[in-house]
Amino acid sequence: MATVILFHSVRGLRSLERGAAERLSAAGHTVVTPDLYEGRVAGSADAGFALRDEIGWRSLCKRAERAVADLPASAVLGGFSMGAAVAASLWAKRPEAAGVLFLHSIAEIPANARSDVPVEVHLADPDVYEPTDEVAAWSAAAGETPIALEVFTYPGAGHLYTDPTRPDFDAEAARLTWSRVEHFLAAL
User: What element of type H or E holds 170?
Assistant: First the structure.
């Protein structure tokens, strides 16, 4: 079974991330959900962006590095929305990662990405934060890298469609996402 790191969205560590950790732990994985906001939670995306900016991107990435320092180099890097970018910021420094999991976002692929590292992406289609043309361009560029990429899109779902506390929750898309994520992790 895998060790999985899941970084939270811009709103902070909430029931979305805790529920995902419980689900994946029940499947036998070791799951870590670092709290980059140190207990603070935003009530809206705008408040989350303000909190992110208050802390600063460099500080968030340093907190993420400290949070994973004692975890195996092969730990799967994952994140929800903004958390995907945090995971990507660590990817270049942790090239031995067994896999990468981006939920609700795309993020930069490092130049030193290991050949055939499995990367799974789950996105709403369309997504207010990830426009279709940007996802298409990103997917084309990713196809030129040595990674083993799978991108899944969920038509009609809202941005954080796996979050049952949000109005954009889509039960069927969430069920399918978690089924695919569990299969992805079991295969590592």
Answer: none
Q: What's the CA angle centered on 124, arms 68 and 135, to 5 degrees?
A: 80
Spatial contact of 80 and 13, defined as CB atoms under 8 Å apart: no
| Alpha-carbon 145 to chain mean position | 19
- In this prediction the pTM is 0.96
Q: Which of 158, 161, 153, 156 is nearest to 135 (CA)?
A: 153
The number of beta carbons lying within 10 Å of the beta carbon of residue 38 is 10
Query: Is the separation of the CB atoms in 146 and 116 below 8 Å?
Result: yes
pLDDT tens digits, 7-23: 999 999 999 999 999 99
User: CB-based contacts of 50: which residues, under 8 Å, 6+ apart?
Assistant: 42
Backbone angles phi, psi at 105, to 5 degrees: -170, 160
All structural domains of the chain with their residue ranges: 3-186
User: Which residues touch 166 (CB under 8 Å, ≥6 apart)?
Assistant: 158, 160
Confidence of residue 86 (pLDDT cuts 50, 70, 90): very high
* DSSP secondary structure code for residue 75 in this structure: P
* 3-186 topology per CATH: Rossmann fold (3.40.50)
- Classified as helix, coil or strand, 132 is helix
Joined together, the tokens standing for residue 185 give 């992790």
